[in-house]
């Protein structure tokens, strides 16, 4: 029998991406029958999650912090071996991680957090374009690689970036079509991702 407390827990699990009500119910039942230490450890980690992880203040990637007042700078932005003149713009942290797995990027990143999508009410004013422009100018970026997904929203975002960045006189390139149209970068294999970066073209 599903109690009111278990319904609340199921509804919270179901709010996670890709988790439906049935999967959420399976998670609940598993935790109820698993060892007590598993649920306790999971609870502790969830409580501490927001205390030690924050979006990087420079790029939006995940950054680990020591104290709640620490400045959140990710390992990529703080890596002196990275090429500061090369900046890759992605829609989500998932995409950044996929590119990193492929080992195709020697520069740094900027996470938009969302794509231009009029149907979902996301307009140009909802994207962090001003922060992107400021970072490009501050770090003397010479090339911006637009690595948004090859979808309708991804292409619209790429065109917006082309319009906004054109006055800066920098090189603006787009990853090649090795990534399938309509697909997510998150699911692209390393070889496909590597070819997409190697074959990037000017926008």
Automatic annotation (TrEMBL):
The chain positions of domain Toprim read: 85-180
* InterPro entries for this protein: DNA_Rcmb_RecR (IPR000093), Rcmb_RecR (IPR023627), TOPRIM_dom (IPR006171), TOPRIM_RecR (IPR034137)
Known SUPFAM superfamilies for this protein? Recombination protein RecR
Residues annotated as signal peptide: none
The record's listing under SMART domains reads:
TOPRIM
A Pfam family found in this protein is Toprim_4
Which terms are listed as keywords in the entry?
DNA damage, DNA recombination, DNA repair, Metal-binding, Zinc, Zinc-finger
Biological role: May play a role in DNA repair. It seems to be involved in an RecBC-independent recombinational process of DNA repair. It may act with RecF and RecO.
- Which HAMAP family would you find in this protein's record? RecR (MF_00017)
- Family statement drawn from the similarity comment of this UniProt entry: Belongs to the RecR family.
Q: PANTHER family from the entry?
A: RECOMBINATION PROTEIN RECR
Name of this chain's protein? Recombination protein RecR
Q: Which organism is it from?
A: Pendulispora brunnea
